[in-house]
Specification:
- The chain contains 9 helices and 8 strands.
- By secondary structure, it is an alpha/beta fold.
- It has a 4-stranded parallel sheet with strand order 2-1-3-4, sandwiched between helices.
- The chain is globular, with a radius of gyration of 20 Å.
Length: 272
């Protein structure tokens, strides 16, 4: 029987970041506080340091990405790491090599951190279970299941603008069923004690009843956005929707698009 995956090392420090499920709220707050220290106002030079001097970070992306990979690459470079970017769609998999073959080869080259984005569920944890004790694995997005760094980023944005979570109403709108970002943000906000979490989506884009159990569900955006402090708008995840499910974009926008009139139903200082 497979043992539950442990993201912490023997000393209780975060070694891997695969999911926000089960992550201690205190640790999440610590991560947000630390991230806050790297923020600079527009116009100021970004922070730099040597925290990762001598380390090698490999970005292994099996899905197209611009913003996520650029974010990880810049962060690693600004902390002094050597960075290797590999597009797995165009490299070893095409030749029939498995991702673990690639991982073992890069481990032999003394890569210390693997950041993995993949459309196949379970790949990130699978890699984390097979790397050496000196190596860390971070998820840059896993199928429709999770995107932990984006969930933490959403939480940080809310904390910056609202100062906390306890009395807030957060409304997530759109293709929630297929969204890994919505799942990770839900986990972060639930752990951090958000006041009320709402989901707004048409039936085919609403998650199953065994997910997001603490959230209130709405089919009407007008009702779901009323009195909200935070409105989170999701795109339609076309790459994860089967061909059998078709969406009339104009009709969808008519019911679920954010307009000034709809946003006026939220609180006056609501953020989007």
């Amino acid at each position: 029987m497979t043992q539950p995956f442990q993201q912490l090392d023997a000393n209780g420090r975060l070694r891997h970041l695969i999911t926000l499920d089960g992550l201690d709220p205190g640790l999440m707050r610590e991560l947000l506080q630390r991230a806050q220290g790297y923020l600079r106002p527009p116009g100021q030079l970004p922070p730099r340091g040597d925290d990762l001097c001598g380390w090698t970070v490999a970005n292994l992306f099996g899905e197209p990405s611009t913003r996520t990979r650029a974010s990880f690459e810049l962060a690693a470079c600004r902390l002094g790491a050597d960075v290797l970017n590999l597009d797995l769609l165009l490299s070893s998999r095409v030749k029939g090599e498995s991702i673990i073959d690639t991982i073992y080869t890069l481990e032999a080259m003394q890569v210390d951190v693997f950041i993995i984005r993949d459309a196949e569920p379970g790949i990130v944890e699978f890699v984390a279970r097979h790397v050496g004790n000196q190596v860390s694995v971070i998820s840059g997005g896993e199928a429709h299941i999770s995107h932990p760094t984006q969930g933490l980023l959403d939480a940080l944005t809310i904390q910056q603008h609202k100062g906390g979570f306890r009395d807030l109403t957060v409304t997530i709108v759109g293709d929630i069923r297929h969204s890994r970002v919505a799942r990770s943000t839900h986990r972060a906000l639930t752990a951090l004690g958000v006041g009320e979490l709402r989901l707004v989506a048409p039936g085919e884009m609403m998650p199953d009843s065994d997910e997001f159990q603490a959230a209130r569900r709405f089919s009407s955006l007008d009702e779901g956005i009323a009195g909200a402090d935070v409105v989170m708008m999701l795109r339609i995840q076309k790459e994860r929707i089967s061909e059998a499910m078709t969406t009339d974009i104009d009709r969808y926008h008519e019911s679920y698009g954010l307009t000034p009139a709809r946003l006026a139903r939220a609180k006056p200082q609501a953020i989007v």
